[in-house]
Write a structure and sequence with these properties.
alpha/beta; Serine Threonine Protein Phosphatase 5, Tetratricopeptide repeat
Length: 394
């Protein structure tokens, strides 16, 4: 389980923002729960809340009992199996913990990063059984070469709890992004860790809006700047696409929300503002997948710097709530998109983000994308125009 601010959280989560259970808790109306309540009469959400509370209190045996009730409700859920592994390990039953780890992988659990970093499993990390589970998850136990990852925006609906991989640069070259026939021509200025796109003939004497576009998990700045170049040029905006700081492959990068990504983006913004006249009242964040996670945090921590945010397929970190409530977001405009076929954590935390930002004074619109998974919709140009018009207030 991924570490919470003061203790470990209780459920697997692929993006390591917070334990996914922490996200679930924020979505469920508060209600008192005790270890003595009859779990069989409770809903799945109530049981999840109780397990989290007990885990936070380090009452691991009681948390394990509740986790077993959750497993009875959802016996095929690999996340429930993973939680059992973690709690058995915390209770000192290492053989049982390893058995549940093996079962959860057989059931489809596939987050090797979480498995390697989860502090709840520290006691079994040096065992041969644990190492075999990791090797199996990585595919090291197979002779054949692993198949290329599915693309970020073309993957079919997947098991919940797993971030899809981004489209690779090679895939992008094979399948260039289509743009409207009348779209303005643009030019790129490529730096080592960010790329800028402006319309040809850009009027450098005029203060222009700035759109800061953050690519998704296993994405890259070149692909994502292409995704937004035409829409930004139509707004007369300068488009900045920073690159995530974590190398995944030679052409794939990722962000680390809360661990340096935000400062990297702010530094790129500062560099661009030295080269272009930017209307400081019209700086907008755009993020997809993990990029949306970073964008949420940037707006939460710097509400006066950004006019608004367009977040697609992101997971909102519920730990940002106190910061948002304290700093407030009056005058900010936020456009959130979530596919109806994306995983439940994206859908539910998108609704949570809407509620939290709205309560802090922001103007928020949540757009559900029919028949869409972890991707932009097919009519992406129309949706981009709608979202930009909304956040710019035009």
């Amino acid at each position: 389980m991924k570490s919470h601010p003061k203790s470990a959280s209780v459920i697997s989560r692929v993006i390591l923002l917070t334990g996914l259970l922490g996200v679930v808790l924020a979505l469920v109306p508060a209600a008192p729960a005790t270890a003595q309540d009859a779990p069989s009469k409770k809903s799945y959400d109530d049981l999840m809340r109780e397990m989290y509370r007990l885990h936070e209190a380090k009452e691991y045996k009681d948390a394990l009992r509740v986790a077993q009730e959750i497993h009875k409700l959802r016996p095929d859920d690999n996340r429930a199996m993973y939680n059992l592994a973690c709690l058995h390990c915390l209770c000192g039953d290492h053989d049982e913990a390893l058995s549940w780890l093996e079962k959860c992988v057989e059931a489809g659990f596939n987050d090797v990063k979480l498995l390697l970093e989860d502090s709840d499993l520290a006691a079994v990390r040096d065992t041969e059984r644990y190492k075999r589970v990791v090797a199996k998850l990585r595919g090291d136990d197979k002779k054949e070469e692993p198949k290329p990852a599915a693309t970020e925006e073309t993957r079919a609906p997947r098991r919940e709890g797993r971030r899809p991989a981004a489209e690779t640069a090679t895939d992008a070259a094979k399948k260039p992004e289509s743009t409207p026939a009348a779209a303005p021509k643009t030019k790129l200025i490529v730096k080592s860790d960010y790329v800028v796109s402006v319309a040809e003939g850009h009027d450098a004497s005029r203060a222009a809006p700035l759109i800061v576009a953050l690519h998704g998990s296993r994405g890259n700045m070149r692909k994502f700047v292409d995704r937004w170049a035409a829409a930004a040029a139509a707004q007369g905006a300068v488009l900045l696409a920073p690159q995530g700081e974590r190398h995944v492959t030679a052409s794939e990068f990722d962000w680390q929300p809360g661990r340096g990504s935000e400062q990297r983006v702010l530094e790129a913004i500062g560099a661009v503002m030295k080269d272009y006249r930017i209307d400081e009242d019209r700086i907008v964040l755009v993020g997809f997948c993990r990029g949306a996670d970073v964008a949420y945090r940037l707006l939460a921590e710097n509400p006066k710097k950004f006019r608004g945010l367009i977040a697609t397929a992101g997971i909102f970190d519920q730990r940002l709530r106190p910061t948002i409530e304290e700093k407030r977001c009056e005058g900010r405009r936020i456009f959130i998109m979530a596919g109806t076929e994306d995983n439940q954590w994206v859908r539910e935390t998108s609704r949570l983000a809407q509620d939290v930002f709205r309560a802090a004074g922001a103007t928020v619109k949540l757009k559900e994308l029919p028949r869409t998974g972890h991707a932009y919709p097919k009519d992406v140009s129309a949706v981009q125009s709608e979202a930009l018009a909304y956040v710019f207030g035009v």
